[in-house]
Amino acid sequence: MDNSPVVAQADASLANYTQENIHLVESAVGLNSPPKEKIGSDFDSRMMLRCLELARRALGRTSPNPLVGAVIVKDGEIVGEGFHPRAGEPHAEVFALRAAGDRARGATIYVSLEPCNHYGRTPPCSEGLIQAGVAKVVVGMVDPNPLVAGGGIARLRAAGIEVLVGVEEEACHQLNEAFVHRILYKRPLGILKYAMTLDGKIATTSGHSAWVTSQEARSEVHQLRAACDAIIVGGNTVRQDNPYLTTRQVEAHKPLRVVMSRHLNLPENAHLWQTADAPTLVLTEKGANPDFQELLLKQGVEVVELTSLTPDKAMAYLYERGFCSVLWECGGTLAASAIAQGAVQKVLAFIAPKIIGGSIAPTPVGDLGFTTMTEALSLERVRWRVVGSDCLVEGYFPKKANSQ
Ligand SMILES: Nc1c(N[C@@H]2O[C@H](COP(=O)(O)O)[C@@H](O)[C@H]2O)[nH]c(=O)[nH]c1=O
Ligand SMILES: [Zn+2]
């Protein structure tokens, strides 16, 4: 099957992504394009889903790199598997080739992301596959990285290797949505997560919030945290909720816990500074409360002063640090300003079937300055799911209201 148009749209001339050409890359990696016909056989799909299963073993650990899995099949049998464990280490294909050894010659390799074609921290996988003598490469999605962007596929085809692109493309994209966002927008993907009652409250009028949702929903949140690079809260959340923001699973990735606080008027004995099992970073402004900074440093907390502390500045800083995904677990005021500044692209709202009442009880999103319903930010690609006794609503902000 010739499906080269997918690749043709993603050429390396898109190295400098702008508003005009971003949509081309988005369609090349399988976003914003009309549903396509199923590509590949059921066996191809099964092998690609196995790649994604392998890729997930490194969940939360690969940034700024993507999650990638690879499977080598010879005569209908899997002869090698691999995944990318973290940035700086070999790519998924390399591990799969090592496992397959000589059996890679004449075999088919399935990879969830287009094989790279550049010398980065590691040599190009395209050359590795050519040297190993594989006969066919089945790719999940095109790599939006301008250093690759179709070049890996072109190189393999030029070497006479059959390449099929787009098998389980949507699932492949879903797994790496944060990596794709990082590449296209030069910011981490911002995910706003909150838990509210049926009448839209995140706490009682007196600020009590433990717990709004069921145990099942809370363990879903722990899994979500483990898949992210950082979790952000504001000073208010530290003062009022004194959260741990941990994943509570021994083996899981521990995201960086980030607190945004302009004046560092924070409690000296917050759980965050007292639990060294996950790293913590406090973002503040130049010259804020030097005594408190010293106290934090003594407790192993990292402090970074930014020239002005806004959600976008925080995201720009976390982008420079190599992060792909940031989970906003803050209160309504910070959430509203993060949304207004385009620091949130995705929303995960847990809704508990409880009513708490209280006209001044806090709500998940503060003032956005809207006066009419027509200004409402309607989520797109919305999914609803039951988690324990709660409902999880998941969706994305429309691009125009939210592009950087
Ligand atoms: N992890 C991964 C790929 N990642 C691609 O390579 C880039 C990182 O290159 P490097 O610095 O050398 O690790 C990353 O941004 C992405 O475009 N490619 C692959 O063929 N297979 C893999 O498993
Ligand atoms: Zn590679």
Please provide a written account of the structure.
- By secondary structure, the chain is of the alpha/beta class.
- 30% of the residues lie in helices and 21% in strands.
- The chain is built from 14 helices and 14 strands.
- It has helices at residues 5-8, 19-28, 42-55, 92-100, 125-132, 151-158, 169-175, 177-185, 215-226, 235-241, 271-274, 290-298, 311-320, 332-340; strands at 69-74, 77-83, 108-113, 136-141, 162-165, 189-197, 230-234, 256-260, 280-285, 302-306, 325-328, 346-352, 380-387, 390-396.
- The strands form two sheets. It has a nine-stranded mixed β-sheet with strand order 10-9-8-7-11-6-12-14-13, with helices on both faces. A five-stranded mixed β-sheet has the order 2-1-3-4-5, with helices on both faces.
- The radius of gyration is 23 Å and the shape is globular.
- The ligand Nc1c(N[C@@H]2O[C@H](COP(=O)(O)O)[C@@H](O)[C@H]2O)[nH]c(=O)[nH]c1=O is lined by residues 65-66, 68, 84, 87, 91-93, 113, 115-116, 120-122, 125, 143, 145, 148.
- Zinc ion binds at residues 91, 93, 115-116, 125.
- Pathway: Cofactor biosynthesis; riboflavin biosynthesis; 5-amino-6-(D-ribitylamino)uracil from GTP: step 3/4; Cofactor biosynthesis; riboflavin biosynthesis; 5-amino-6-(D-ribitylamino)uracil from GTP: step 2/4.
- In the C-terminal section; belongs to the HTP reductase family.
Summarize the structure.
Pathway: Cofactor biosynthesis; riboflavin biosynthesis; 5-amino-6-(D-ribitylamino)uracil from GTP: step 3/4; Cofactor biosynthesis; riboflavin biosynthesis; 5-amino-6-(D-ribitylamino)uracil from GTP: step 2/4. The chain is of the alpha/beta class and about 400 residues long.
